[in-house]
Amino acid sequence: MTVEKTPLIILGTEVHPGETKEVNFDVANLHTASPVNVPVIISRSKKEGPTLLFTAGIHGDEVNGVEIIRQLIAKGINQPKIGTIICMPVINIFGFINLKREFPDGRDLNRVFPGSTNGSLASRVAYKLIHEVVPHADLIIDFHTGGSGRFNAPQLRYTKDQKHLNELAEVFGAPFVLYSKNLTKSFRTTCSKLGKDLLLFEGGKSFHIDDVVTNSGVNGSKRVLKHLGMLKTVFKSSKPKKKCVFIEDSKWQRAKYSGMFKASIPVGSEVKKDDIIGNITDPYGKFNYFVRAQNSGFVINVNELPIVYQGDALFHISTKLNGK
């Protein structure tokens, strides 16, 4: 194994082989003039190897991804056997502070990449991330959650034409892989254009920490690190309990009526067409509509809000599996 000698210069700081440093990803102060420190934890081995970037908190309300990276750091999993691990637990610190998805300027950070040096606050953060952090990474794992009240089964996302990532996805071992299109001006799209491989992890819902989702993210990260030769032998990496399901296409099943809603199947379930998967009632006990699956497939997202309106998304169900 070759001994690494070159210092890594990132965000204006030199990180030498064998060092762990916390550097500051600062862009702007709060409106009170108080400085905002956005810690980036960089750990390097003395031995050469790949650089893996873990990111979370692009949306300020997606705290489960923050918890996953927090555990990677707290348990020392981010101390690599070879190579370098960069951890950014909270990118949108402004949204995280204010318990909001967006930046104070109302912009969604994940819709302004690659950003600019003279644009909005969100755009400036995007630019700095893309130009000062991402170039160092060989692989990126970006942690997200579902939206408000909509619980995602742990899953990885990337496009159909990135099937070279299938092997790595199987190593990660999330229950599902959902082939999904890149969104305009998203972090994932920009990384793809730069030739950077990125696994986007979705799991849980906003403002919520779920142990199953957290364990899926932490264990998947350990498996990838072991696969790359980066996981120290002190950490154990178990094989996934079930084989990953690759989903080619899926669709949302929406509410036919407004009312009080309750799902009757857990997220991740396999259902058959016409199975009862939930019901919608009124507050007065006069109405009870049974929601039946419109097609057979795996349920990868469930609406957990108690009140829904006609047209609201209730379930996200696979319609076509890879090769089927």
Automatic annotation (TrEMBL):
Domain Succinylglutamate desuccinylase/Aspartoacylase catalytic: 49-227
GO molecular function: hydrolase activity, acting on carbon-nitrogen (but not peptide) bonds, in linear amides; hydrolase activity, acting on ester bonds; metal ion binding
InterPro entries cross-referenced by the UniProt entry: AstE_AspA_cat (IPR055438), N-alpha-Ac-DABA-like (IPR043795), N-alpha-Ac-DABA_deacetylase (IPR053138)
Entry keyword set: Hydrolase, Metal-binding, Zinc
Recorded superkingdom: Bacteria
Named cofactor requirement(s): Zn(2+)
Pfam families for the chain: AstE_AspA_cat (PF24827)
CDD domains per the UniProt record, alphabetical: M14_ASTE_ASPA-like
Chloroplast found in the keyword field: no
Protein name listed in UniProt: Succinylglutamate desuccinylase/aspartoacylase family protein
Lineage of producing organism: Bacteria, Pseudomonadati, Bacteroidota, Flavobacteriia, Flavobacteriales
